[in-house]
């Protein structure tokens, strides 16, 4: 019975070695035509610092004030106190509600234009020759609150925003802005979203204060898995060296490289870095890494077989397996 079990054990080891010696192949993308250029406008990374400065637009000085969300208006209709209102809030969608007027879009208008619109509505509702006056009781309280928050000793100061762990900038009044895009696109989105909120009444500048060094990620059977600082011309073998080198359990002949594109697609390559080690530059891979690439070093078939032996034999069989065995026969 013991001999039969030993044969089964040997067969299991052989099967594990054969099954794990080679990992299932992946479809490789075409090799890049040239080294990736680290100087192009790359996406922001966690920990990057963006500086944002707010200031009311000087273009509005001396020009008719354009009403916007958050303003409080006063509406007076001569000889019709029932139509007058002391405080009318401009809603976030740019509309107001007034007597006999359900909704009126006023964002971007000056007070004379709003008065003309109201007078037109009242004439349509049989009010004879209405005389309407509109004034701004309180300019956008949001801008005032924003400027108070960034003012120190009478001067406005830029604020620093750090890209959070989820890859967002969290900004006042416009919420979260994704940084999974080039910095130029982040700047344009921030400025446009503030323009949608405040029109030309608020100017916003967006600058990059500091960046975390770009990294590639080396995972799997390396001594120190994790991020490795990127430098121009970095190869997969150099990245593995930056991660402490291969473990004894590694399979250098089957190393995977993954690269995510901005459009969400994935490029992937299978490389034989063992040939790089044994043959030098004659077998050097033409692939050069780009920031945020992932290099994954597979576990060797022998190492996988050892895991299988530990999981399925040593932990299941209720006696110790040694290098040798002694059999005692009673004649």
The number of strands is 17
The low-confidence runs, each spanning 5 or more residues with pLDDT under 50, are 321-331
Order of H and E elements: HEEEEEHEHEEEEEHEEEHEEHEH
Q: Average pLDDT, to the nearest integer? A: 78
Overall geometry comes to elongated
Total domain modules: 3
* Strand order in the largest sheet: 14-13-17-15-16
CATH class of the largest domain: Alpha Beta
Structural class: alpha+beta
Q: What percentage of residues falls in helices of 4 or more residues?
A: 25-40%
- Tell me the CATH architecture of the largest domain: Roll
Characterization of this structure:
With 331 residues, the protein is of the alpha+beta class. A five-stranded mixed β-sheet has the order 14-13-17-15-16. A three-stranded antiparallel β-sheet has the order 9-1-12. It folds into three domains: 23-38 and 214-314, Outer membrane lipoprotein wza domain like (Outer membrane lipoprotein wza fold like, Roll); 49-60 and 142-210, wza like fold (2-Layer Sandwich); 72-138, wza like fold, CATH 3.30.1950.10. The chain has helices spanning 2-20, 111-124, 141-149, 183-198, 236-242, 273-279, 301-314; strands at 49-56, 72-77, 85-89, 95-98, 101-105, 132-138, 151-152, 155-156, 159-162, 168-171, 175-178, 202-210, 215-220, 226-229, 250-260, 266-271, 294-299. The chain contains seven helices and 17 strands.
């Amino acid at each position: 019975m013991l001999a039969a079990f030993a044969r089964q054990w040997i067969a299991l080891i052989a099967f594990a070695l054969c099954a794990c010696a080679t990992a299932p192949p992946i479809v490789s993308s075409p090799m890049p035509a040239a080294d990736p250029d680290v100087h192009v406008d790359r996406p922001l990374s966690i920990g990057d610092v963006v500086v944002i400065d707010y200031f009311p637009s000087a273009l509005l000085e001396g020009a008719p004030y354009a009403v916007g969300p958050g303003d409080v208006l006063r509406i007076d209709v001569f000889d019709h106190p029932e139509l007058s209102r002391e405080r009318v809030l401009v809603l976030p969608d740019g509309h107001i509600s007034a007597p006999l007027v359900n909704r009126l879009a006023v964002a971007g208008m000056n007070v004379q234009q709003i008065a003309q619109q109201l007078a037109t509505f009242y004439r349509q509702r049989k009010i004879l020759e209405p005389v309407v006056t509109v004034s701004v009781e309180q300019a956008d309280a949001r801008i005032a609150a924003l400027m108070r928050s960034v003012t120190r000793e009478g001067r406005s100061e830029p604020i620093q925003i750090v890209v959070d762990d989820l890859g967002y900038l969290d900004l006042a009044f416009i919420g979260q802005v994704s940084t999974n895009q080039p910095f130029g696109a982040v700047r344009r989105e921030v400025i446009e979203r503030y323009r949608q909120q405040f029109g030309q009444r608020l100017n916003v500048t967006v600058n990059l204060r500091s960046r975390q060094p770009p990294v590639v990620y080396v995972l799997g059977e390396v001594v120190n898995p994790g991020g490795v600082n990127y430098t121009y011309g970095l190869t997969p073998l150099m990245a593995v060296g930056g991660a402490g080198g291969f473990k004894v359990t590694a399979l250098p002949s089957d190393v995977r490289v993954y690269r995510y594109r901005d459009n969400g697609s994935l490029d992937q390559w299978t490389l034989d870095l063992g040939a790089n080690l044994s043959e030098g530059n004659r077998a050097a891979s033409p692939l050069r890494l780009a920031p945020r690439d992932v290099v994954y070093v597979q576990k060797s078939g022998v190492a996988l077989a050892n895991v299988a032996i530990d999981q399925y034999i040593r932990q299941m069989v209720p006696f110790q397996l040694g290098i040798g065995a002694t059999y005692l026969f009673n004649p």
